[in-house]
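FORM 7B - TANDEM STRUCTURE REPORT

SECTION 1: FIRST PROTEIN
SEQUENCE AND C-ALPHA CELLS:
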Amino acid sequence: MKPCVAIPIFDHAETIGTVVDSLASFQLPCIIVDDGSGEATRAELERIEARHAWVEVVRHDRNRGRGAALRTAYRTAAGRGMTHVVQLDADGQHAAADVPKFLEAARARPDALVLGTPVFDDSIPWHRLYGRKLSQVIVWLETASRAVRDPLCGFRCIPLAVTLSLLDEAEGGDRMDFDPELVIRLVRAGVPVVNIPTAVRYPEGGISHFRMLEDNLRIAATYARLAIAAPWSVRSRTRSPRREIEWASASERGSRFALQFLVWLIRRLGGAPLRPLLAPIAAYYTLFAVRARRASQAYLARIDRAQGGSGAQPGLRESYRHFYSFAEVILDRFALWSGAYDRFDVVLHGREKMEAYRKGGRGAFMVGAHLGSFDMLRVVAREAGISVNVLMFTANAERINEAFEALDPDCGVRVIKIDPTSARTVFEIRRCVDRGEIVAVLADRSLPGGRRRIIRANFLGGPAEFPEGPFRLAMLMQVPLVMTIALRTGPNRYDVFLEEIADGEPVPAENRAKAVRERVETFASRLEYYCTQAPLQWFNFYDFWADTDHARE
C-alpha cells in the first residue's frame, strides 16, 4: 500500500499553511491541487512547496470546481505510483491528526472506502446538520445499504484503482456533487465501507465555497440522476469504457432497491411525483455531461443533414431537448416495471406478424436499437401471450430475472446472459425459439469482446459498426428476423413497428456471408429512417461513428 494526501484548494491562503504543517510529522507525499486560486493563495502555496519537499502543487489555470480538482489529484497520485489517497479540505475543518486512523483502517481493508463520520461541535450551522442527515437517508435508499454514515464528509481514504476505473466510465460532477456521487458509485460497485469518527468544526470566519442554493440543487439533481440511472446502466469490466449495453442493471446491490422504491412510488401515485425531476436531470446532463453532450450534438447534426439541412452544430437547447426526451422514456419504463400497462396507448404496426408467430407456435429473433423504448415490446408480447427472452451482456442475469419477477410477476420477460466464450447461450436461445418464444436483443452496439464480429454499414452519412452476431444467429437457426422499434408519439402513447427482415428460410453456406451483410445493411437503413422520424429518441450518447472515423484517418 502506497498512500498519499490530497488537498483541493481554492482561495484558502489563511489556513492552508496550518493544515500542511499539521501533516508534517507523517511524512506522506502530499498533492495540493490549486483550483484557480488568486494571487495570495498562489504565493502561499509557492512558499509551502519550497519549504516542504514532500509537497507537490498542481495548478488549474481557472476554477473548475472541487470535483475537477479531486479528479486531478487522484490521477496525479496514480501517476506517482500511489495506491490510496487520503483527502481532506484546505479550510482547517478536518482534524489532520486523525490521518493515521484512516491509514490504519485502509491497511486492514485495502479494498475499502474509508469515510470520515463527522463528530460536530456547536459551530455547525443547523441547516448543514439537517442537510447531511437528509443526504444520509437518500444514500441509504440509493445503495440499499446503511453502510454509509456521511456521504458528504470530505475527509476520506479512497482506493485508487477502483475509483479511477469508475471515473473512466463517467467522470461525475465537477463541484460539490462529486463527493456523494463517488460514494454511491463505489458502494454500488461492491466496494466495502469503513466509517471513522473524526472531529469536524466550522471555524468562525471560515471561508466556505458551498453555495447554499446552487450546490444543494446540484446535489439533489445528482441523487435523482443516479436513482433513475441505476436500473438500466450495465457495466462490464472487460469492455471499452465507451461501449455500454443499456437495458437493465448489473449493479444490483443498490439499484434493485432504488428501482423497487421508485416503482412502489409510481404504483401508488403515478409518474407525477417524478416528472418535475426530468427538467433538472436533463439540464444537468446538458451542462455537465460534456462527452454525452458532444455526442448528442454530433448525432443531431447528422440527422439535420439527413433531413436536408446544413448539418450545423446544434446548441445547448437542442441537447437539452434530447436529454429530456431520454428522461421521459425512462420514466415510462418505470411505469411499465410497476405493472401499469393500462396507462399506455400502444399502437402496433405489423400485428399480423406477431399473430402468425403465435398461431404457428414459431419463435422469432427480434432486433431493436437504442431508439425509443425497447421495453414496449413487453406490452406487445403480453397482449399476444408470447414469452420474451432478452439477450444481455451481464454476469448477473439470474438476479435481474429475480428483480423483474418481484416487480411484475406476470411480465413474461426473462434475461439470458450473453457469454461470448461459451456455447451455452446458443443452446439456450435454441430452446427458447423451439418453444415458440421471442428472443430479443439490441443490435446497434457491438458487444464487449466482439470487436472482430462487426459489420460496417452506412448510417446517417457515414459507416458505423453493427454487431454481426444477432443477424447470423437468426439465419443459422432458421427463424424469422424481425426489427422492432417503439417510438414515443405522445404522453403515454407509443407506436410499435415490426418489420420482417428475413423469413427464416434456409440460406446456402456459400451465400451466408453476403446474406448477413445484406440484413445488417437493411437494419441500418431502416434504423436511419426511424431516427429521422423521431430524432430526439436516439439514446446512444457516445460517438457512434468514432471507430470508423479513426479507421479512415
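SECTION 2: SECOND PROTEIN
SEQUENCE AND C-ALPHA CELLS:
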Amino acid sequence: MRTLVFSLAFTSLAGLALAQAPNAAGRQQFETRCAHCHGGDATGGEGGPNIIDQIDSRTQSELADFLRTGRPASGMPAFDLPAADMTALTAYVRTLVPVPSGDPPPEVRKKIQTTDGRTLEGRVLNEGMNDLQMVTADRRIHLLRKAANDRYREVTSQTDWSTYHGDPSGNRYTKLTQIDKSNVARLAPMWVFAVPNVQQVQNTPIVAGGIMYVSSANEVYALDAGTGRPVWHYQRARTKGLVGNASGGFNRGVAISGDRLFMLTDNAHIMSLNRFNGELLWETEMADWHQNYNGTSAPLVVGNLVITGTAGGDEGVRGFVAAYEAATGKEVWRFWTIPKPPEPGSETWKGNSWMHGAASTWMTGTYDPQLDMVYWPAGNPGPDFNGDNRDGDNLYSDSILALDVKTGKLKWYFQFTPHDIHDWDAEEPPVLIDTNWQGQPRKLLIQANRNGFFYVFDRATGQLLLAKPFIKKLNWAKEIDKNGRPVLNDIKEQANGESLVCPGIQGGTNWYSTSFNPGTGLYYIQALERCNYYSKRDLEWQAGKGYMAGVARPDPDETFVKSLRAINIQTGAIAWDLPQGAARFPGSAGVISTASGLVFFGENSGSFMAADAANGKVLWDFPANQGWHASPMTYMFDNKQYIAIASGLNIIAFALPE
C-alpha cells in the first residue's frame, strides 16, 4: 500500500492489546507490501497515513475487496494476490487494531430501538453511560442518547457552523439567541476535548450534521458535538524538515461540502476526506514544500470548487490563490499574488526579487454569491524588514484581491501598505456586509488592517469609501489620501540603526476573527496599542531557511494594551473601548457577536468573556487561564446553543445548564 492510501482513523485507547495472535504468512505480506508506507503497526509512516480506523471499519472480506481494487488515483495500487495470501494478509492486518485490554473485540455490533419507532443496527464506534455512536450499513453515523425503556433518542445539530467563519461572508455573527444578556452569566463548560501531540491549537472547529471537526497538522478529529466524544480520527505523519508555521503542528480548520471534508496538509497539499469515516478520497500537491511552502489555513468551498492558498511568507515563497475541483482535486485556476515579468505589476519589483517576494495567502478568504467573487487577503512582501532589494510598491502584497470565482481573473485589488517593511500583511478578515451607507443600501467590504487603519470599500467596484485609524499609537503615516495611498511620516533611523514604529510587528490587530453586528451597526475587533524598534540586515533566500531580514524588538519602556473595540463603520469612530488585562504576550483570540446583543472574546490575561454589544459592559467571565490562539464559534445541538473555542491545547464547549 503506497503513500496516498485509504484514510486513517486512529482512536487513542489506554491499555492496548492485540485482537488476536499474528500469523507469520500474513505478517510477511504486510511487511513486504504495506509497512514501508504505513509503518509496522499501521499507524502511519513516512510514505503513508495511519490506517487503523479503516481496518476497523471494514470486515475482512471488505478489506480484501478494497485491496484488490486499490485507489490508483490517490497513489494506492491494486493488489491481485492469490486467495491464500490475501486471506493471510487481511487476517494479520486486523490483528493490528488496538482494543482495550479485557474488552470485547473492536467489531461490537448492536441493534437498538429508537424513541421514534425505528430499529437501528450497526457497529458501535464509541459508547458512554448515556450516549452511543453507531455506524449503520449505509456508512452513516448516528448519535444517540439513552431514553426510557431501553430506547435511544437520535440527536443532531439544528444550526451548523459549516465554514471557518461560520458564513462565506467572513462575518462571525450569529442569529442564535438562546444565550442572551439575561442568562449569559449562567454559561458553563459542558465538555472539553484535549487535542493531543500539539504545541498550540489555532483551530476553529466546524459542525455539520451533529459532528464537530477539529484539526491539527495532518490530523482531523470527528467529535460528537454534544459531548466532545471522539467518533473517528485521521492521522498521517508530519513532514520532517519542514520550515514555517506548519512545522509547529497547528492547522486552523477544515472545510466541508456534502459528504466531503477538505484540509491542507503541513507540506502544502490539499486533500479530501469522507466526513463519515475519514477515508482519503484524493490529494493534490499545491506547491513544493522543499521551496518553503507549507499549509495552515482552512479552505473555502464555493460551489463545486475548493479555494485556498498556502503559508510560507516569512520563508520567501511566491504566493498564490488556487481553486480545485471538489470531486477530483484537479486544479481549475491559479492566481499568483506576485506577477512575473512582463505581467502587469511586475514593474513594482526590482530585478528578480519577485521570485521570493512572499505575499503568501495563509488565511481564508470570503465569498459573495451574488457578485460571484472571492476576496482573498495577501501577506506582506519578503524579505520582512528589509526592502532595499525590492524597490517599488511590491504588488500584490498587503492587498485584498477580488477574483472571479469561475476563472480566477482579477476584478480589482487594493494595496493597504505599499512597499511594506514592517510585516503588516492584509490577512485580517475581509468581512462582507450588506447595509446602508450614507443612507443608501450598499454591498460593502470592511477590514481593520494590521497597519492600524480601518477601511470600508464598495466590494463590487473596489472604491475606497473610508479609511480611519482605529489605534492611538500610529506614527508611520499621517493619513490615507483620497487615492487610498498612505501619506508617510518621516521616521528617522537612530544611531544604532533602529527605528521606532507604531504599530509594532503584531500590528494594530491581526488574523483573528472580527464581527459586524447589524443590530448595533458596530464592528468588533481586538486592537493592540504597541510599538517596536525595527532594524534590518542583509539576507539571501535559501530553501529550508527563514527569510526575515531584520528584527522587531519591544520597547522596554512601553506597557502595551490590548482592547476589545467597537467601531462605527459609518464614521470610523470608536463607539466603545474595553481595555484588557496585562499579559506577557498578547493573545490571538478573535470575537463573535450575536443577535441577542453579546460579544464573546478571549481576554488577554486568559479569560473567556462576554460583553454587552451595545456598550462593552462585561457580563460573563470564565478564567480559562490559557493563552489564546483561536477564535470562537457557535452552533445549536439537540436544541441547545453552544459556544466553543480552542483554549490552550483544548476545545471547550460552553452552554446553559439545564
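SECTION 3: OBSERVATIONS ON SECOND PROTEIN
The chain has five helices and 46 strands.
The CA atoms of residues 455 and 467 lie 5 Å apart.

SECTION 4: SIGNATURE
Preparer initials: ____
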